[in-house]
Amino acid sequence: MEGKREIIFDRLVYSCAFEKHRGYEEFIPEHFLGFQLSGETHAFHADGNTVIPESTVVLVRKNQLIRTVKYPSKSGKYQFLSITLDKETLQQYAIENKIVIENHYKGKQKLFFEPDDFLQNYFISLSPYVNKKKEATPRLADLKIREAIELLLQSNPDFKQILFDFSEPYKMDLEEFMNQNYMFNVSVESFASLTGRSLSGFKRDFTKIFGSTPKQWLREKRLDEAYYLIKYKQQKAADFYLDLGFENLSHFYFSFKQKFGLTTSEI
């Protein structure tokens, strides 16, 4: 059974699954606050892997790539609730409360923590909307997002350096970024945005650094990693082809034979 993802109101999303479900790569354009109601989420990102256990709150920062695997609890159900802390609401909140930040957040990229009573009760207060016992008006939805902001700042005032940093993504080290994120199956346009470049600027810088187009380099990089996993780690292609950004197994086998002149079983 495929996982269900339902938008309760425009910025509140409820995810549910009854068996292990591998999600697709996602570009996270806005900060969001999430709560693992049941089961656990395994999140793969540029800095490694993060396991979000049951009854844990997670604050996920914007402008990054994440791939998830959802695992139901022993009772057989996976549930995750997330609320987007959109830029417009955060900017309005900052103006009203005269919040100005001078330094960027220096802590870990991924933030997850045991919820205090306030955050726990906050997510419980959202359950009537998930169960469709109550319908949220736009005004009420806005108030719930503001409440989430208040509770986050109450739990850790340093979070203001994350939430109210409205600077545009700066030009990242392209070589380092691509070597950390090549396995994500997203568009070249997304890679350009994440590195703080226009599409044309990204392609120009990419060719200067790698001597190849993005699509050609991604294909070669993924196939080289596949060769390493098969030959030296004794792994089967069926177990990792999705994790390396290939969309289907037959295409992977074709590309592999085309590059190395051998099938995976001949390696």
From TrEMBL:
<keyword id="KW-0804">Transcription</keyword>
<dbReference type="InterPro" id="IPR018060">
    <property type="entry name" value="HTH_AraC"/>
</dbReference>
<keyword id="KW-0238">DNA-binding</keyword>
<dbReference type="InterPro" id="IPR050204">
    <property type="entry name" value="AraC_XylS_family_regulators"/>
</dbReference>
<dbReference type="InterPro" id="IPR009057">
    <property type="entry name" value="Homeodomain-like_sf"/>
</dbReference>
<feature type="domain" description="HTH araC/xylS-type">
    <location>
        <begin position="172"/>
        <end position="267"/>
    </location>
</feature>
<dbReference type="GO" id="GO:0043565">
    <property type="term" value="F:sequence-specific DNA binding"/>
</dbReference>
<dbReference type="Pfam" id="PF12833">
    <property type="entry name" value="HTH_18"/>
</dbReference>
<dbReference type="InterPro" id="IPR054015">
    <property type="entry name" value="ExsA-like_N"/>
</dbReference>
<dbReference type="Pfam" id="PF22200">
    <property type="entry name" value="ExsA_N"/>
</dbReference>
<protein>
    <submittedName>
        <fullName>AraC-like DNA-binding protein</fullName>
    </submittedName>
</protein>
<dbReference type="GO" id="GO:0003700">
    <property type="term" value="F:DNA-binding transcription factor activity"/>
</dbReference>
<keyword id="KW-0805">Transcription regulation</keyword>
